[in-house]
């Protein structure tokens, strides 16, 4: 039976088993509906990672914060902000970075109009909470069918102590963070955050990372109680991207815990970035209407050696605004709220260049066997591009009765690509050599993107709600995908979901069952030589179940866990397979999507005493999955990767030890296979230990 019809079975659950007379204070979502709302009353699956969890786990990277959220895959092989991020199957097509998922910080989008996100310039040590919305249909999600991750930073208006945090660990880990906040006058506030991180990661070649981040916030309260909060930030990030391994090299890594001199040709990949940004948020109440305009600007540059080419881009600017208003009113004699607004965003890059690698080792035929540095060689191409997005959105939330609530939302966006370039030289994946490029090229394309959601919640008891929703959204192809296949269509994703949420004094429980039907999903195919090509699948069907729970055994002990079941398959998909000089289409109908395991789960236990002693242990398991679209081979996944924390907090002092991968297991974070049968593995980090001391004053 299709999962979309399972709402009837869910409603039939025995509510008496779920009832509890004591109501717990539910975690609040401040972004899913753009109005502060208890998560129990939101008609979609949403997870909130609070400030205590972030501090206890000493979160320095986004993947460490959300990797145990059901339905989310977040993994990095470098202990740095370069995760592979997948939500309910969305994001699989990304060769690097994050695609199909909207990342926002305090309501300001971090994701480019064509859906690419860089995590380099997000300082996780300034984040107080994280919200994860899963699936299409959110009014926050611009050109993103996978969902939204919202980062809430520490507001300049919130009373908070100053702090300094220092940490040292193995693999040359060093961390320094300081936060200063002051009241300039009764109406003026300011804060300053500075972070510095370094990691050597000497167990593997080309694996170093360092970042320097600074942020200055200023807030003012006007006489009419309206507020404005401004932030200026700067980041300099130097991230080396280590090479992947063959099957034999993975087995050697498992024995030696070292990864050196692998056979991969591209030994010197990196992403070195400098990013300066500004954003301003205004909030004003006028009767029943609240105005929330936001403006933002980002300038970034990067030096990005990747497979075949070195990207060097120094003149990139993003301009954007989101003009929102909220209207509180009555509907059906009940409180209701209307949220509406318009969005405009321009991403403009001028004179971006690509270069050949200068220092390479070749064989007798001229094939590149290995890069020896990431120094620039001959100029390969130049390009100017602009991506312009504009749109509007609206959401109405209302109650029919005291127990029965509804929300309906829609947004429409127009996305325009304008790209002009000159490719002088190109890397040929088949021959492994540089050759003559395609010359002058241009791309002028546009997509109309629709998104909508209808949801309802019903209170079975004071502690338990059920919900149901249907949501849909479009996903446009990216500029890089269009350059390889200009005939790509936009994706249409429709999600049917039912769920249950329980909040009691001692427990939280969430259950979600969904079916996501995706037409024209953009699928990546790995050809020989790590060449990625893209095509639209006819239709994919993603069915899943997500469950998470936590329970207070005593006043000091909390336990919990999460489970994800995924059945993601191609209904219709003909994959382009290259054999020599011939390309043929091969049916993958009925096959499973690669990289997505059928089963994932995690468990945790936390112990906190009134005297300040605290400890926490978390373990996660990632089941086996197919390595390619053809489903010819499976990777076994990994079992019970365990993270551990022990600490002591007293008055203004906090000292804690965090150990990730406690039992030092050696495994692949990602395994894949191209259409020629070549296997590729990316190693996960061995045991990582950091001792941190924080002083608040």
UniProtKB/TrEMBL annotation:
Domain named TonB-dependent receptor-like beta-barrel: residues: 201-662
Coiled-coil features, chain-numbered ranges: none
Any one GO CC term of the record: cell outer membrane
Signal peptide stretch: 1-19
Pfam families attached to this UniProt entry: Plug (PF07715), TonB_dep_Rec_b-barrel (PF00593)
Membrane topology note: Multi-pass membrane protein
Localization per record: Cell outer membrane
Keyword Magnesium carried by entry: no
Matching InterPro entries: Beta-barrel_TonB, Beta-barrel_TonB_sf, Plug_dom, Plug_dom_sf, TonB-dep_rcpt-like
Key words of the record: Cell outer membrane, Ion transport, Iron, Iron transport, Membrane, Receptor, Signal, TonB box, Transmembrane, Transmembrane beta strand, Transport
A molecular function (GO) term: siderophore uptake transmembrane transporter activity
Principal subcellular localization: membrane
Gene3D superfamilies: TonB-dependent receptor, beta-barrel domain (2.40.170.20), TonB-dependent receptor, plug domain (2.170.130.10)
Domain spans labelled TonB-dependent receptor plug: 39-148
Keyword Endoplasmic reticulum among record annotations: no
Stated family: Belongs to the TonB-dependent receptor family.
Protein name (Swiss-Prot/TrEMBL): TonB-dependent receptor
